[in-house]
Design goal:
The protein has 752 residues and is α+β, with helices and mostly antiparallel strands. It is built from 18 helices and 24 strands. It is elongated.
Length: 752
């Protein structure tokens, strides 16, 4: 008997030592799943069980139980000694306080059964669900009696094991109790043989379950603390102010992201050492001496001589005294915390916000002023004239809302708006004043257009499109693809309906007056020619010099009146849209030669030079109107060159555009720059021409432009005051000169 007792004593000591060792190991484990596995495996190894299961009740993040201990509310957390299929089955199987588990899960007492098979209540004897519920009630009653010490474990009733569960005969289970003695779960052991677990095994399992409960609480407490530390760390680094902690030796212990950024920024600057001493280490030394500072403003200057402003707060960190310790009479300093904030950016943002508020107020005032204007005003940018802003009058003028950022072409198409010339012809997109301003970066003044809305109504307008310098226009507009700023134009539309009505009345009056003057002027001119003819035939009648001069003056004045009457009638036809062109294919070269020779016969003070680089240029034209244009341009060159000189007339073919190009160059008085934009308008004459006493009606260039453009051509000029003017006329060709015949045909004719 003595050796047997000795062996049992040694086994007990080994178990106690193993229990103490596992207890220390459990307290150091922070992974819950590994902890549960270690507990279950330790129970199997120490007690000699074949199976071990760990069941737990669900809890919330604070570790509070979520469900009562009654019912199938436990879940399997870990299992030892089963197959993978059985583990998968048990993980989906809820556990509850029924049968042999009721004392453990409901009442928190351990259960040890020598042979489970002797306690099983056969479910087959229950012929109905009601009878089975009665068996469950009987089992629960026996569990209650066992938990209160009224019966032994041999009197408990078992409801058997679920399908797929490994067979067991010996059973041992202990509850996991928290500090409030609430059941958190259970540690369950089993063996296929009976009588495998003894009283000392039960005591060992109860002790192990107690260690497990404490270890689980520690793990969850550690996890909660770890989560809280991460939250605090995230909060610490998200603080917009720089926060730095230093130890008693003024060494940085910890700093948040903003403090690290500010420190690195200052270290990289030329004044890094001195700046850090003023902002960080100086306040830290003062705080370590117990001299805290609150919101101290520190001003620095960077290498670019830009002011920098920081606000610094330093506090002393004291070591917490032990309560009731008589030796701790004075708090010891354990470090300092410095909070520093770069107010430079904040103040800059405040200034920018103030500037933005002022800008918005001014923009609002400008928009209010623009909306009160009776004329349409809008601002566009980009090659396609996208809208920036507009006033209320613009919406009324267009009869539609132009969306911000929408191109002009898209707006016109979307709202079926068309723009016409004053003579009723459709104005091409590229000739719109707005598009000319943004595409050619030039200002267009006093441009007449007619807006036709979708409902058919028309509105005559006077357009001024002013091209603005994008570099001097602070509109925050996007840069163009090539990196330059988009062109910007300010466009003003003035409704000239009333003026047009008055102009129509004036044109009617001019047309009537010109028509009524035509008949008497024709009669007067006929009488003068008849009188001159009679004087020539009657040689005995001799006029004095004064009489001859008077007769010539009357003849010249009559011719001027006839020319003015014809011009006025042409203007009236143009304005009324009744001008008809009789176009036919003709040679422009021969026409120009004929007109030049006619002027040579009557002009002696000027030298006319014709430079012709093509044998012929066939143009589809109204010969009378093109001859009228040539006459106007050549007579102007002669008239506005009062000192005489050379007049060069050039004619050539432009193969790239398939056009005939005519130029007439004089060395006369030129056209002032300020008046060049209006020189093709009706009744417009340059100031220097009037100052020199040069006669003119101001209709020739207007009629010339209308005639040329109705032929599909274009007319323009280059002029410098007191240096001369060159007019250019381009007309489309319908046949080209033969290059091989033109090699030796460059012709220069001087007619003097």
């Amino acid at each position: 008997m003595q050796p047997r007792k000795k062996r049992k004593s040694l086994l007990k000591d080994e178990r106690i030592a193993a229990l103490n060792h596992i207890g220390a190991a459990l307290l150091s484990e922070h992974n819950e799943q590994q902890l549960l596995h270690m507990i279950a495996q330790t129970a199997v190894d120490l007690i000699g069980a074949r199976f071990a299961a760990f069941s737990l009740r669900p809890i919330n993040e604070q570790g509070e139980l979520l469900v009562p201990s009654e019912g199938n509310m436990f879940h399997l957390a870990e299992v030892i000694g089963v197959t993978d299929e059985q583990r998968e089955l048990f993980s989906r199987m809820p556990l509850g306080g029924e049968g042999l588990l009721a004392p453990i899960f409901r009442y928190g007492v351990p259960v040890r059964v020598a042979d489970v098979s002797s306690l099983i209540v056969q479910r087959a004897t229950a012929e109905s669900s009601l009878e089975f519920e009665q068996l469950k009630g009987s089992a629960q009653s026996s569990a209650f009696a066992y938990a209160h010490g009224k019966i032994s474990s041999e009197d408990l009733q078992s409801l058997g094991v679920p399908p797929g569960h490994p067979g067991i005969r010996s059973f041992l289970g202990a509850p996991l109790l928290d500090h409030a003695k609430q059941v958190r779960g259970g540690l369950l052991l089993g063996h296929p043989d009976p009588n495998r677990f003894q009283a000392e095994d039960e005591a060992l399992l109860v002790g192990l379950a107690s260690h497990a409960a404490v270890a689980l609480d520690n793990v969850r407490l550690y996890q909660a603390m770890h989560a809280r530390v991460q939250e605090l760390d995230a909060i610490f680094h998200s603080i917009t102010d720089g926060v730095t902690l230093v130890d008693p030796h003024c060494r940085i212990v910890r700093e948040n992201t903003q403090a690290q950024r500010l420190r690195h920024q200052l270290e990289a600057s030329p004044q890094g050492t001195s700046s850090l001493d003023v902002l960080l280490y100086g306040p830290a030394r003062q705080a370590l001496l117990g001299q805290a500072q609150q919101d101290r403003l520190v001003s620095l200057v960077n290498e670019n001589h830009e002011p920098l402003e920081y606000r610094v707060t330093s506090s002393t960190l004291y070591q917490q005294l032990s309560p009731g310790d008589p030796t701790s009479k004075k708090q010891s300093i354990m470090g300092a915390v410095i909070i520093w904030h770069d107010e430079t950016e904040t103040r800059r943002m405040l200034r920018e916000r103030h500037v933005y508020a002022e800008t918005e107020a001014r923009r609002s005032l400008l928009q209010h002023i623009l909306d009160e204007l009776p004329t349409s005003v809008y601002l566009v940018h980009g090659y396609d004239a996208r809208l920036v802003l507009s006033n209320h009058a613009a919406k009324t003028l267009w009869g539609a809302s132009w969306s911000q950022g929408q191109s002009m072409e898209s707006f016109l198409q979307e709202n079926r708006i068309q723009i016409f010339r004053t003579d009723g012809r459709l104005l091409p997109q590229e000739q719109l004043a707005t598009l000319q301003a943004v595409r050619q970066s030039k200002s267009i003044y006093q441009h007449q257009e007619i807006i036709r809305h979708a409902d058919g109504s028309s509105l005559p307008v006077l357009v001024n499109a002013i091209a603005l310098d994008a570099r001097k226009t602070p509109l925050n507009l996007p840069a163009a693809s090539h990196g330059e700023r988009d062109p910007v134009a300010l466009v003003v539309h003035q409704d000239v309906s009333a003026l047009k009505e008055a102009e129509y009345l004036k044109d009617d009056f001019i047309g009537i007056a010109a028509h009524e003057l035509r008949t008497p002027l024709a009669a007067l001119q006929g009488f003068i020619e008849l009188f001159q003819l009679q004087l020539t035939e009657q040689q005995n009648v001799i006029l004095t010099a004064g009489q001859q001069e008077s007769l010539q003056n009357v003849d010249q004045a009559t011719r001027r009146l006839v020319d003015l009457t014809n011009d006025l009638l042409d203007v009236t036809r143009l304005q009324a849209g009744r001008l008809e062109l009789r176009q036919e294919a003709m040679d422009l070269v021969s026409l120009v030669k004929r007109v030049v020779r006619r002027y040579q016969m009557i002009e002696g003070r000027h030298e006319l030079v014709l430079l012709n680089q093509a044998p012929f240029l066939i143009v589809f034209m109204d010969v009378m109107r093109i001859e009228q244009v040539l006459t106007n341009l050549i007579s102007n060159a002669i008239k506005y060159s009062p000192d005489g000189g050379q007049i060069c007339i050039s004619l050539e073919e432009v193969s790239t555009t398939k056009q005939a190009l005519l130029s007439i160059q004089d060395q006369g008085i030129g056209i002032p720059v300020s008046q060049q934009g209006r020189i093709f308008s009706r009744f417009t004459r340059a100031d220097n021409a009037q100052a020199n006493g040069i006669y003119g009606t101001g209709l020739g260039l207007y009629l010339s432009r209308e005639f040329i453009e109705r032929h599909g051509g274009s007319i323009w000029f280059q002029s410098s005051e007191n240096k001369g003017t060159t007019f250019f006329v381009a007309l489309p060709l319908i046949a080209h000169a033969f290059d091989e015949e033109a090699d030796d045909s460059n012709e220069a004719q001087i007619i003097s």
